[in-house]
Design goal:
- The protein is of the alpha/beta class and 547 residues long.
- The chain has 3 domains: 243 residues, ANL, N-terminal domain (Rossmann fold, 3-Layer(aba) Sandwich), CATH 3.40.50; 101 residues, Luciferase, domain 3; 97 residues, GMP Synthetase, Chain A, domain 3 (2-Layer Sandwich), CATH 3.30.300.30.
- It is built from 17 helices and 24 strands.
- The strands form 5 sheets. An 8-stranded mixed sheet has the order 2-1-11-10-12-13-14-15, with helices on both faces.
- α1 crosses α3, α1 crosses α9 and α8 packs across α9.
- The longest helix has 15 residues.
- It starts with 11 loop residues before the first helix and ends in a 7-residue tail after the last helix.
- Bound molecules: adenosine monophosphate.
């Protein structure tokens, strides 16, 4: 049969070309490490990408080489991303909050040839520089700074590197299966593992992120990714904003509530994305300052379960819809997003709120199933059967970087390590990380459910429920909580607050107040650390007789 359609590889360079051609004057707002705010636009970003791509031709690189970044969300970092992947190299985004030993491990595992870094991270660079033999160049993402030269004599400066380069550059054309970027999982146990995204997986994932039933992004939006560019590619926002031609507001290093409220109000941000701890801080700041965050129509929360109180607060007090989304490094990350269907207009307010609390349903492209342990038979999607959550699709990991062994089950699914339910419409609810579930006397208790209730108490700012060892029940839940400022709430008051909200045997045996919870580089609470610190409190306490 005659006839066929054009073939064009799905390449990341197409995104920046599209943005420069059709959204040239759309603003890119960026807070720099010195606190200054700069404004450029998609055309200027594209021109700087091309300048940097020309500078790479003097670097003696081979296609597929890894070039790393240790940087905040700012415009130079954005330009570096596009220049690296567009030129056929792999952009390895490094989480600066890792320990130096972990940083050294991943840089050596990736065999990075260069590291682009924000000046904030100079001490890190100095700590690792002698231990990363493959790195030939360190490039500071700034203009020349003599103090940095004193500490790191061979350093290059981004602004100088691109200054005299041409803005003419023809992006190389290659297979869309070519690797484009690399991101290591947090690695709470064992060494971090690298997920190697391709141009194709990135573009397909980006399209799905923009869908109306995902984040519904368009050229009308002003998007602020609070989620860092080193956390699963900032959930694709730097790509998605170029794809649809929206303004991007890059918040730099200051992720506290006050700084974010300033950016939202000054630049009329319509949608912002971050983990729950970010929103908790932002809501406190917004309340204190009396702003109504008028421009925000929606916010996206993912990375950890979103407490219902956050969704309610945004809706009732700021008229802002919270989109609860779920994903992981291995899933690019979008696996599900919570958007209602037409039929849900008929739901009662209470039923609708219940639906909005779930992690949502998969966009076209990914498929979910739940199974029992290592079985390959899918459990029913009835909204209450719990099972191990598995996923497959064109933007899901197949093999980790440098690992010969497949990351998939024998029948081709990726096991997420999460325990979930799925209902008949595909709405998925995360019950827990398999390793965070609390097993009391043979019965499972969801730590997420306990935390959601706890942070609904007006005097609790943050909470983590963990398993504490118990002589009779093996494990019992305890709650580690941070009070709101000046609160005098007591342990008994918090425990009573759980009554009638869950079965009495699920109520935490103890509530321990702390000043702050340990959070990792991506803003998630590190439960493993809490388990080490508090896991024996019930054994050590004399009043362990419970339930
Ligand atoms: P990471 O790869 O570091 O982004 O971590 C992925 C893990 O974060 C997932 O496997 C989940 O356990 C957790 N996670 C992400 N989004 C959510 C969410 N919306 N609700 C509950 N847990 C989540």
């Amino acid at each position: 049969m005659f006839g066929k359609m054009m073939h064009q590889s799905l390449l990341i360079s197409n995104l920046i070309e599209h943005a420069a051609k059709y959204h040239a004057d759309t603003s890119i707002i960026s807070r720099e490490v010195n606190g200054q705010i700069t404004t450029s636009n998609w055309l200027q970003v594209q021109q700087n990408c091309k300048r940097l791509a020309n500078a790479f031709t003097t670097f003696d690189l081979e296609a597929g080489d890894r070039l790393a970044t240790i940087a905040w969300n700012n415009h130079r970092h954005l330009e570096t991303w596009y220049a690296v992947s567009g030129s056929g190299y792999v952009c390895h985004t490094i989480n600066p909050r890792l320990f130096p030993e972990q940083l050294i491990f991943i840089i050596n595992d990736a065999q990075d040839k260069a590291i682009f870094f924000d000046s904030t991270f100079l001490p890190l660079i100095l700590a690792i520089q002698g231990k990363v033999p493959t790195v030939e160049r360190f490039i500071c993402l700034s203009s020349r700074d003599d103090k940095i030269v004193e500490a790191l004599p061979d350093v290059l400066f981004y602004d100088e590197l691109i200054q005299h380069q041409s803005t003419e550059f023809n992006w190389p054309q290659f297979s869309e299966e070519t690797p484009s970027s690399l991101c290591y999982t947090s690695g709470t146990t064992g060494n971090p593992k690298g997920v190697l995204y391709s141009h194709r997986s990135t573009l397909l994932h980006t399209m799905a992120t923009c869908f109306p039933d995902s984040l519904s992004l368009s050229a009308n939006d002003i998007v602020m990714p609070v989620v860092p560019m080193f956390h699963v590619n900032a959930w694709s926002v730097p790509y998605a904003t170029a794809m649809v031609g929206s303004t991007i507001v890059l918040p730099g290093p200051n992720l506290d509530g006050d700084s974010l409220v300033d950016l939202i109000d000054n630049y009329k941000v319509t949608i912002a994305l971050g983990v729950p701890t970010i929103w908790q801080g932002l809501l406190v700041a917004a309340k204190k300052r009396g702003t109504t965050l008028d421009s925000m129509t929606r916010n996206v929360v993912g990375g950890a379960a979103c407490p219902p109180s956050i969704i309610r607060d945004f809706k009732n007090n700021y008229n802002c819809d919270t989109i609860h989304a779920w994903g992981m490094s291995e899933t690019s990350p979008l696996g599900t997003a919570n958007q209602p269907k037409a039929k849900h207009a008929a739901l009662s307010e209470e039923e609708f709120e219940k639906l909005r609390l779930t992690q949502g349903r998969p966009p076209f492209g990914v498929e979910l199933r739940i199974v029992d342990g290592s079985s390959t038979t899918a459990l029913p999607n009835d909204g209450h059967t719990q099972g191990n959550l598995q996923i497959r699709g064109p933007w899901i990991v197949d093999h980790y970087f440098n690992q010969e062994k497949s990351a998939l089950t024998a029948d081709g699914w990726f096991d997420t390590g999460d325990i979930a339910t799925i209902d008949a419409d595909g709405y998925m609810t995360i019950c827990d990380r398999a390793k965070d579930l609390i097993k009391s006397g043979g019965e499972w208790i969801s730590s997420v459910e306990l935390e959601n209730i706890a942070v609904g108490h007006p005097e609790v700012r943050m909470a983590a429920a963990i398993a504490a060892r118990h002589p009779k029940w093996d494990e019992r839940p305890i709650l580690i909580a941070v009070k709101q400022e000046n609160s005098a709430v007591t342990e008994d008051e918090i425990r009573s607050y759980f009554k009638d909200k869950i079965a009495s045997w699920q109520i935490p045996d103890a509530v321990i107040f702390v000043d702050a919870l340990p959070v990792n580089g991506t803003g998630k609470i590190v439960k493993a650390e809490l388990r080490t610190q508090f896991g024996d409190v019930l054994i050590n306490s004399k009043t362990v007789e419970s339930v």
